[in-house]
Amino acid sequence: MRRWMFGAGITGLVLVAFAGRAGALDEIVTARGWPQVDYAEDGACRAEVRGNGQFYRIAGQGLRPGEVVQLRLRNEDIKPVEHRIVANGDGAWRDFYVPFVWHLEGGIVDVDLVSKTCSLNLSFAWARRRL
């Protein structure tokens, strides 16, 4: 099952997509050569961010199957994005994020992940890509 969420406003545009099976080393982004831009772990729980400069994949593993992860993304001065992700049968989850703030050339995204067994913080820098 795939779910897309769009939020647009004068101050920014956010695209968040999340779906199906994933691990901290997601084969799709690994095969495309997306570099790891941040990594955190706490015991068996671990998460990473990989990106290609436009799209970023936040993924983790080490949770209990069905465990709920509260995800909060803060990108500069726009309202934080908050939602829940449920770990799959392997205890893995993933989320995609496209950072963009209309009036800025770049910034920092802070990611907070909290579940019953895990609490991690990640961050990454982004810059607007000019064509």
Structure commentary:
This protein is mainly beta and 131 residues long. The chain has a single domain, classed as Sandwich (Immunoglobulin-like), CATH 2.60.40.10. Helices cover 4% and strands 55% of the residues. The chain is built from 1 helix and 10 strands, in the order ββαββββββββ. It has a 6-stranded antiparallel sheet, with no helix packed on it. Strand 6 (68-75) and strand 7 form a beta hairpin. The longest helix has 5 residues, at 27-31. Residues 1-24 have low confidence and may be disordered.
Quick one: overall form? globular
Total individual domains = 1
Which CATH-level-2 architecture?
A: Sandwich
- Order of SSEs: EEHEEEEEEEE
Which percent range describes the beta-strand content? Answer: over 45%
Please tally the β strands and state the result. 10
Return residue spans where pLDDT drops below 50 for at least 5 consecutive residues.
1-24
How is this structure best summarized?
By secondary structure, the chain is mostly beta strands. The chain has one helix at 27-31; strands at residues 2-8, 13-19, 36-42, 45-51, 56-61, 68-75, 81-86, 93-98, 106-114, 119-127.
SSE map:
Elements: E1 2-8, E2 13-19, H1 27-31, E3 36-42, E4 45-51, E5 56-61, E6 68-75, E7 81-86, E8 93-98, E9 106-114, E10 119-127
Antiparallel strand pairs: 1-2, 2-8, 3-4, 4-5, 5-8, 6-7, 6-9, 9-10
Q: Which terms summarize this structure?
A:
about 130 residues, 6-stranded antiparallel β-sheet, 4-stranded antiparallel β-sheet
